[in-house]
Amino acid sequence: MPHRPDFHLHAAPPDSTTSAPGAHREGRPSGSRRSDPLLLEVAWEVCNQIGGIYQVIRSKAPVMVERWGSRYALVGPYHAQKATVEFEEAAPTGVIGQVVKQMQDEGLGAHYGRWLVTGRPHVVLLDYLSMFPRLHEVKYRLWADHGIGLPGDDELINNCIAFGEMARQFLWLLGQREQGRRRCIAHFHEWMAAVATPMLRREQWPGAMVFTTHATVLGRYLAMNDDHFYSHLPFYNPEREAAKFLVEPQYRIERAAAHGAHVFTTVSDVTALECRYLLGRETDLCLPNGLNIQRFERLHELQNLHGRFKEQIHSFTMGHFFPSYAFDLDKTLYFFTSGRFEFRNKGMDLTVEALARLNHRLREINSPITVVCFLITRRPVRSINIGALEGSAMLSEFRTVSDHIKQQIGQRLFEASAAGRIPDLNTLVDEYWILRMRRTIHSWRRSMPPPIVTHDLVDDRNDALLNQLRTCRLWNQASDPVKVIYHPDFITATNPLLGMDYDEFVRGCHLGVFPSYYEPWGYTPLESIALGVPAVTSDLSGFGAHLKQHHQDHDQHGLWVLERRHKSYWEAAEQLTQHMFDITQMTRRERISLRNNVEAFSLNFDWSQLAEAYHRAHELALERD
User: Fold this and answer.
1) What is the pLDDT of residue 32?
2) What distance lies between CA 423 and its chain's CA centroid?
């Protein structure tokens, strides 16, 4: 692939608050709406939820539609099952629709419509499987023109190459139609959507390109395997490391896209360091991730919602723990961590170490507080643990018996008092219901401690998280003030144990714990504060680094940033333990006040504030085109 041309323009682009999208240079059409540029965002996770990029694009859509209107569209892969839920197909209209129709006429699977999310943006979904008969040709061009060798049997890589080629054809046809009329910007997200970038640059596509890497492929692998990743970063040989971890094709695609784009961006200063040393190009801008905070905002309902959903978590807690022993739910706090199973990268190891220390500290001071911490991730499981299901079923039986007894006592007490009698309370309940209650209580009791994992893991012997819980002796003994629930599946409303959506579960908790070692941005703490729940993150996450740089008073608003960059693992564990301990020492009134502060502070991360960086990137791309 040819070297990226030297760009002599390094000045900041025009302030997009005063310049319309696509301020025109001399010689370009201007002065009419028809000459305004088009913006296409291309991503593998458009209408295709896999990870955090789906949330980025989905939540950002309303502000992009507000700014660009019908000149904005998203491009993603077509998956029939997912499209049924998220996509509303429509007859192709406008210039984008015309290109879709042209592709259809050429036998390529292209679909035009709207994404059924807030803002309802226009979407083009490309059926990449229709490109498979010509996949060998695309791979040859990537090797011949860009030196990117590709395996023949990797399903994900093949899918992404086919999707990238279809995106290239779509953008090329669009560019040809609009050349001399309107300018086009193509914004690619991650290597899965980036194959088209170097190819279009080589073909001198008449448009501007932005490439955003949300996390470098190589950086994720290196961080998982090197305790001193950030210290060693300047000294890695990227090509050798990519070959070592068997990610050479992905690495080469990502590097080619970074050098082929007019504007190269990432989501944080933390990841920008990776880009400098692993991809060999400085990033032009950082595009911090936001949320559509209005979607979460509940204003005066905050405390009521917390109370309601906390009661639902209480129900699970009773079913899980009370057959073995009971504790005071009014003095119980719920902590949680969640995310993909990257044991070290996500800081799960640090979380467990801090919980063990907190357990020791609370036991030393004979604290009346109980902490139940949920460790939520996804692991291969056979089924839900039978004991966990039995606890939930027995709790339902208790509720049924109690409701019948309550109804019977109420009716008979009413009848007796209306007749002027004070009844013998022992006669108000039928013997049947007393016997059924006794049998339920007898079946309820168990001598074993509550399990620490809710599901039967496929390989529990080699599960890193479960093994560390065992090593730290977090066994849910009655004497332990800190209890743990390892829930190896994501929480949804259809979950038979909790029966709650993830957002509802978070609202019912008291603290989110996310002390990541490697996290390009980190949506989980941001979602936590948007739902009014204090959170801990780290300065090795993009979000934590952003807080330290732009919000010096973050700790006063219920957001704590662990110092992991220049502190040892043990120092960070002690710091995290202290933050957890401080929460346990707060009064109920102090926790309510903190939740209110947290929710108000989350408005700083609404897309209405953070989308400005995207606008600057698009303006800069137009200037460099």
Assistant:
1) 40
2) 59
| Predicted local distance difference test score (pLDDT) of residue 170 | 97
* Domain presence at residue 438: no
222 and 135 in a common domain: yes
C-beta atoms surrounding 490 within 10 Å: 13
If one counts the domains in the chain, the total is 2
Indicate the SS3 state at residue 43. strand
**Cα dihedral: 19, 26, 13, 211 (round 10):** 110
For the beta carbon of residue 367, count every other beta carbon within 10 angstroms. Answer: 16
Tokens (6 digits) for 562: 């662990």
Query: Angle CA(419)–CA(421)–CA(422) in degrees, nearest 5?
Result: 140
DSSP 449: P
Query: Where does residue 220 rank: exposed (0-12), middle (13-18), buried (19+ CB within 10 A)?
Result: middle
Cα–Cα distance between 25 and 161 in angstroms, integer? 34
State the CB neighbour count (10 A cutoff) for residue 94. 14
Q: Which stretches of the chain drop beneath a pLDDT of 70?
A: 1-35, 295-300, 425
Q: Measuring CA to CA, which residue among 525, 540, 527 is closest to residue 220? A: 540
355 and 284 in a common domain: no
pLDDT for the residue numbered 13? 36
Expressed as residue numbers, the domain containing 581 is 301-388+450-604
pLDDT at res. 425: 65
Give the tokens for residue 383.
Answer: 């089924």
Task: Estimate the crossing angle of helix 52-68 against helix 523-530, to 10 degrees.
Answer: 60
What's the CA gap between 89 and 111, in Å, rounded? 7
Three-state secondary structure string covering 303-349? HHHHHHHHHHHHHHHHHHHCCCCCCCHHHEEEEEEECCCCCCCCCHH
pLDDT at residue 230, as a whole number: 92
The string over 232-245, giving b where at least 16 C-beta atoms fall within 10 Å of a residue's C-beta and e elsewhere, is ebeebebeebbeeb
Rounded-to-integer distance, Cα 409 and Cα 391, Å: 27
What is the per-residue pLDDT for 428? 76
C-beta of residue 160 within 8 angstroms of C-beta of residue 132: no
Please tell me the predicted confidence (pLDDT) of residue 219. Answer: 94
pLDDT the model gives residue 299:
55
Q: Which of 575, 431, 595 is nearest to 510 (CA)?
A: 595
Name the amino acid, one letter, at 238: P
What pLDDT shows up at residue 11?
33
CA pair distance 515, 560, nearest whole angstrom:
10
> Do 263 and 336 sit in the same domain of this protein?
no
Helix (DSSP H) and strand (DSSP E) numbers for the chain: 23, 17
Give the distance, in angstroms, between the CA of residue 432 and the centroid of all CA atoms in the same chain.
51
239 in a domain, yes or no? yes
Q: What CATH number did the domain enclosing 52 receive?
A: 3.40.50.2000
What pTM, to 2 d.p., does this model score? 0.84
User: Residue 171 — φ and ψ, nearest 5°?
Assistant: -70, -35
Q: Give the β-pairing of 381-384 and 559-562.
A: unpaired
Residues 187 and 283 reside in one and the same domain: yes
